[in-house]
TrEMBL record:
<keyword id="KW-0804">Transcription</keyword>
<dbReference type="InterPro" id="IPR011263">
    <property type="entry name" value="DNA-dir_RNA_pol_RpoA/D/Rpb3"/>
</dbReference>
<dbReference type="Pfam" id="PF01000">
    <property type="entry name" value="RNA_pol_A_bac"/>
</dbReference>
<keyword id="KW-0240">DNA-directed RNA polymerase</keyword>
<comment type="similarity">
    <text>Belongs to the archaeal Rpo3/eukaryotic RPB3 RNA polymerase subunit family.</text>
</comment>
<dbReference type="InterPro" id="IPR001514">
    <property type="entry name" value="DNA-dir_RNA_pol_30-40kDasu_CS"/>
</dbReference>
<dbReference type="InterPro" id="IPR011262">
    <property type="entry name" value="DNA-dir_RNA_pol_insert"/>
</dbReference>
<dbReference type="InterPro" id="IPR033901">
    <property type="entry name" value="RNAPI/III_AC40"/>
</dbReference>
<dbReference type="InterPro" id="IPR050518">
    <property type="entry name" value="Rpo3/RPB3_RNA_Pol_subunit"/>
</dbReference>
<feature type="domain" description="DNA-directed RNA polymerase RpoA/D/Rpb3-type">
    <location>
        <begin position="90"/>
        <end position="386"/>
    </location>
</feature>
<dbReference type="Pfam" id="PF01193">
    <property type="entry name" value="RNA_pol_L"/>
</dbReference>
<dbReference type="InterPro" id="IPR036643">
    <property type="entry name" value="RNApol_insert_sf"/>
</dbReference>
<keyword id="KW-0539">Nucleus</keyword>
<dbReference type="InterPro" id="IPR022842">
    <property type="entry name" value="RNAP_Rpo3/Rpb3/RPAC1"/>
</dbReference>
<protein>
    <recommendedName>
        <fullName>DNA-directed RNA polymerases I and III subunit RPAC1</fullName>
    </recommendedName>
</protein>
<dbReference type="InterPro" id="IPR036603">
    <property type="entry name" value="RBP11-like"/>
</dbReference>
Length: 388
């Protein structure tokens, strides 16, 4: 018999046009578990870590019906900053919902682009110590200064050092003869709110012969810095007063002036407001099975960071639990044991970063964090302006 073709009705056409396989009840929504793990986690194996790359292409999982593109509304929902601890010098916080590229950009800004005050010029009048002038100037330049850089302006080549862009310190120490060796610490640096006291050398011997002319120094302050309201009750000092500068033997002497100006770490490390700023992905420790009795004790003992703990299950049974996963450094000691390698899974969350800021003391860490956010915001605005 001849085969009769089935007639396609208008209803069939509408159904085919609107058909979506994801709408069926027996089709799982989103990515399957193994792809979800690959998208959001870095897994640390015994030999190497896997799935370290980020899939930033919008069509990376299009075959599974998942849109991987970056959307602003999703960023608003996912992004979060949680401050874990904050002291005068250290700050730890979690930055959640961002890509590693943004986290690294923030780290680089903290180190190289947040300004601070540091000693740039050292005028040495007398130095009979064992430390040569260049090394002494370098040591003094690395001393952190407790002064808010937001209160000062940048000193350019065409500017004259004044009370708005320069801080002057004086150091004059002598070890008397017959006395033991003297340690010169940063508490010997005295702030000169009126500017430099060293007379500036001039070309002729009669240039200062006029009694009415004011002797020229290396700065031209129009007013004393301690008369300004921001410094009236807050004198400028080195951040730490016990940093060793030099050691003087009896009869040796140091006399100098140190001029501090505003700068950024990109120019020189002495202007970096942080001793270090680093981040790491949030560790995730998963037990793939029950770790009991002798294996549990061995797992707790082998971990140097005390990530695991023992839970008493009664009847003399013990079970290992993940007590402090945040302490994990992914040292992999727990998976080097052949009996434990298949029971422990070490992972890192790709979009969750633990940040640590260690300030040099020139600025509090929370202020450094706020200034870095402002700089990153300004960079984004300039990019948007250039593209529009």
């Amino acid at each position: 018999l001849p085969c009769r073709e089935k007639m396609v009705t208008e209803e069939d056409k509408i159904f085919a046009k609107n058909f979506k396989i994801d709408d069926l009840s027996d089709v799982p929504a989103g990515l399957p578990p193994h792809l979800k793990l690959k998208q959001n986690r870095v897994v640390s194996k015994k030999d190497a870590s896997v799935d370290t790359a980020d899939a930033i292409y919008s069509g990376s999982y299009v075959s599974s019906g998942v849109d991987n593109s970056v959307k602003l509304e999703n960023f608003y929902e996912d992004f979060k900053v949680d401050v874990i601890s904050c002291t005068e010098t250290d700050m730890e916080f979690d930055m959640i919902g961002i890509d590693a590229a943004f986290a690294n950009a923030f780290r680089r800004i903290l180190i190289a682009e947040v300004p601070s005050m540091a000693i740039e010029k050292v005028l040495i009048a007398y130095n009979t110590s064992l430390i040569v002038d260049e090394v002494l100037a370098h040591r003094i330049g690395l001393i952190p200064i407790a002064a808010d850089p937001r209160l000062f302006e940048y000193l350019t080549e065409n500017d004259q050092p004044n009370e708005k862009n320069t801080i002057v310190f004086k150091l004059h120490v002598k070890c008397p003869k017959g006395q033991p060796r003297l340690q010169v610490l940063t508490n010997e640096l005295q702030w000169l709110p009126n500017g430099s006291e060293f007379l500036k050398e001039t070309g002729g011997s009669t240039s200062n012969s006029n009694s009415n002319s004011k002797p020229k120094t290396y700065t031209s302050f129009s007013c004393s810095q301690d008369s300004l309201p921001e410094f009236a009750d807050n004198p400028i000092t080195p951040t730490y007063l016990d940093i060793l500068i030099a050691k003087l033997s009896p009869g040796q002497e140091i006399e100098l002036e140190a001029h501090a100006v505003k700068g950024i770490g990109k120019t020189h490390a002495k202007w970096s407001p942080v001793g270090t700023a680093w981040y790491r992905m949030l560790p995730e420790v998963v037990l793939l099975g029950e770790v009991e009795d002798e294996k549990a004790e061995r797992l707790v003992k082998v971990c140097p960071q005390n990530v695991f703990d023992i839970e008493d299950m009664g009847n003399g049974r013990k079970r290992a639990t993940v007590a402090q996963p945040r302490n994990c450094t992914l040292c992999k000691e727990c998976i080097r044991d052949h009996d434990l390698v298949d029971l422990v899974d070490l992972r890192s969350v790709k979009n969750h970063f633990i940040f640590k800021i260690e300030s040099t003391g020139s600025l509090p860490p929370d202020v450094i964090f706020t200034e870095a956010v402002k700089i990153l915001e300004d960079k984004c605005e300039r990019v948007i302006a250039d593209l529009s």
